[in-house]
């Protein structure tokens, strides 16, 4: 059995505060014997404060891969597999990046490929979806808006990912916010995409998300673990916390694919 934790939490521009919160969440996960902990997008430095503008004067701090703060999270992870998001600086470009690490170092990296309009003026887009091997199985990563595009999760599943971590900074609707969060259009879409991407690829999907607010952005939470049949097996709703589930990942996938094996039954030549 694999114990998986999907984090819902808020992060800020204060990197030391964020690092302390990451450490607290890793300690919590370790107490619960979590083996895979997926933190949200922008866990170091927070997310953009406004997606309706093309000019931004309050950007998340950009960090290089060899930044001491990254090294500290790697050390904190120890034997646990930990995924987290941050703004990566590389050769003058900014990337919305997710890292997967253990105490031994970086296992995998994903730079967000699909960008909503407000991000395009800030981040350079990534250009690939690649799965990678970890001590707890083969993983793939997406970052929030990536999951809107079925091809993203499908590419990871075709590349052998049994588990997909989707790190989110997913807000309530910017154009038509509902008075109650659970009635918000984006709340429904967030859950729909999580469940659909898991079910159509028959994989385990771990979806983390920010909580709280930054600038004009109010984040949904709703972190969850979804089984390969599209069933939510653990969730946080809108509150901060960790959704924890124990799954025999291979057995769950084999059961889901026993009669209908979606990946084997594709007809790429017809698409």
From TrEMBL:
<dbReference type="InterPro" id="IPR036526">
    <property type="entry name" value="C-N_Hydrolase_sf"/>
</dbReference>
<dbReference type="InterPro" id="IPR003010">
    <property type="entry name" value="C-N_Hydrolase"/>
</dbReference>
<feature type="domain" description="CN hydrolase">
    <location>
        <begin position="2"/>
        <end position="249"/>
    </location>
</feature>
<protein>
    <submittedName>
        <fullName>Carbon-nitrogen hydrolase family protein</fullName>
    </submittedName>
</protein>
<dbReference type="InterPro" id="IPR050345">
    <property type="entry name" value="Aliph_Amidase/BUP"/>
</dbReference>
<keyword id="KW-0378">Hydrolase</keyword>
<dbReference type="GO" id="GO:0016787">
    <property type="term" value="F:hydrolase activity"/>
</dbReference>
<dbReference type="Pfam" id="PF00795">
    <property type="entry name" value="CN_hydrolase"/>
</dbReference>
């Amino acid at each position: 059995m694999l114990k998986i934790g999907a984090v819902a939490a808020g992060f800020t521009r204060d990197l030391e505060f964020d690092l302390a919160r990451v450490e607290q969440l890793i300690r919590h996960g370790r107490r619960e014997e979590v083996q895979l902990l997926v933190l949200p997008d922008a866990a170091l430095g927070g997310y953009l404060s406004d997606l309706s503008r093309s000019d931004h004067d309050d950007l998340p701090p950009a960090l290089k891969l060899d930044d001491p703060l990254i090294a500290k999270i790697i050390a904190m992870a120890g034997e646990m597999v930990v995924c987290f998001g941050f703004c990566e600086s590389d050769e003058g470009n900014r990337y919305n990046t997710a890292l997967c690490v253990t105490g031994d170092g970086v296992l995998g990296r994903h730079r967000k490929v699909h960008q909503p309009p407000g991000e395009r003026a800030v981040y350079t887009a990534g250009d690939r979806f690649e799965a990678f091997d970890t001590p707890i199985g083969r993983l793939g990563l997406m970052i929030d808006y990536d999951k809107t595009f079925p091809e993203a999760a499908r590419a990871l599943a075709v590349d052998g990912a049994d588990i997909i971590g989707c790190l989110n900074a997913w807000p309530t609707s910017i154009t038509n916010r509902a008075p109650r969060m659970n009635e918000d259009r984006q709340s429904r879409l967030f859950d729909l995409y999580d469940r659909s991407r898991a079910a159509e690829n028959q994989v385990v999907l771990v979806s983390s998300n920010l909580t709280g607010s930054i600038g004009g952005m109010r984040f949904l939470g709703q972190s969850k673990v979804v089984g390969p049949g599209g069933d939510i097996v653990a969730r946080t709703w809108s509150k901060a916390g960790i959704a924890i589930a124990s799954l025999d990942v291979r057995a769950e996938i084999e059961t889901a694919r026993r009669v209908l094996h979606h990946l084997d039954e594709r007809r790429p030549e017809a698409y």
